[in-house]
Amino acid sequence: MKKILIIAATLALAGAGCASQSSVGSAPKATVPAAGKTQSAQTTASQAAIPAAETSNEANALVVKDQLAGNSISIAYVKLAKRGYAAIQADTNGKPGKILAVSDLLFAGENKEVPIHYTTTNKTSYWIVLYSDNGNGKFDALKDAKVEDSAKHQVMETFKMTSDQNLMITHDSTVKEGSDSSTEINRASAKKAEDKRDGGADENAKSGRK
User: Fold this and answer.
1) For residue 56, what pLDDT is reported?
2) Cβ-Cβ contacts under 8 Å for 205 (sequence gap 6 or more)
3) Which domain holds residue 117?
């Protein structure tokens, strides 16, 4: 009788072990996000960083940054409906003045980091004005018309040369001088410069006490 009970107990323990293994084997697996969804989120983030001028429906657009004074300038982005030129012009009472230098002939479509060789002066404002080539492949301010956007406004932007990288800001055809956006950008730049000066003053005061 004892043998029968021992055998029954052994079989019961074996059955419990199998049930435990079956339960572990059927545990739900961790869900791993599909790679496509992660890539989609990254793509969306990248698209959000693209300048507004690049994603607009305008056939002609311009983006230019304040930059360090030197012997050349770089235009961040130029979009043209037909081939043409980007000219750097002097600032005359807040408006484009004398043409100082011109880019090489630019093809229709998007052009990035367009160089113009011209020695600029620190703390001086300039303008970039777009012109449409008249077909001969040579710039002529009298014959090459100024480029306009869909609202018939000339595509041009002002920018400033600086020696302080912290004060460099970006101008594009969607941010006009005097607009709320432009004012906020300038306020932020001025605040950054003020904080930098205050920090330097504190350091000098500490050095004096030592």
Assistant:
1) 73
2) none
3) 57-173
